[in-house]
Each structure stands twice: as structure tokens, then as C-alpha cells.
């Protein structure tokens, strides 16, 4: 009987030791935090640019296609330069007429405005924009290196 109790207790203990997940905090990496510009919370300031529907309507499909190609090429160039961290369109219409968004790797609204003005679709007035300061994870730029590994095509 005593052996059965000890065996049951051992099985019970083993079961719960496997059932519990140990969540250890990852080791702090000062070198990476410094490289990414992280504050003590692992965060940093960015600037979000919300692309809006612009005042210019272009009916010529070839011209619009050319502008959108330039828009995409400009995003790629700014990403390669480390200026754009996130870019993408909204999938639904919204009350604010937001069409897409950029997260720029700067806390300067002026610098973000200079960068967004390099976009041919912004220059043509197809897109307008609004600029907002934002605070997020300093590790955000790290996803870009993996994005190239998972995309088969560029739009």
C-alpha cells in the first residue's frame, strides 16, 4: 500500500512538473538594445504617416499604374535605407479616408515629412498624409530581415 502511495505521489508530481511551463525572462542584450536605440523599456520613438485620399483624381490607368509602381519602388528604397520600418495599405475603407500607413524610423515629424514627399503618388496629389509621433518596440525594424525570407514576389 505504501509503495502505491509513493508511486501515485511520484506520478502526480511528475505530471505537474511537466504541465507547468517555466517562463524565464530572456537575458537582456545591451549590445542589441544600444544598436536599436532602445530605452530602458525596450521602446523608442517613431513617426507614423497615415496616407489619405489625395485631392488629385487620375483617370488615366496607365498614368495611375506608373504612379503606383513609383510608389512601391519608393517604399522599397526607403526600407532599404532603414527609413521605413512598416508600410502597407488598409484593406477596408474608413471614415478618415486613410489609405495606408508608414512607420518611419525617426522621431522627427519634419524628417518624416521629407521622406514621405519623395513618394511620386504623394507628389502627384493622389495621396495626402497626416503625421503622428508614436512610441513602440525598438525591435520593430528586425522583422524586415525575415520578411524577405517569406515573400515570393514583390507587388
UniProtKB/TrEMBL annotation:
Residues 1-19 form the signal peptide. The keyword Protease does not apply. Residues 62-134 form the YCII-related domain. It comes from the Bacteria. InterPro entries: Dimeric_a/b-barrel (IPR011008), YCII (IPR005545). Keywords: Signal. The keyword Signal applies. Belongs to the YciI family. This is YciI family protein.
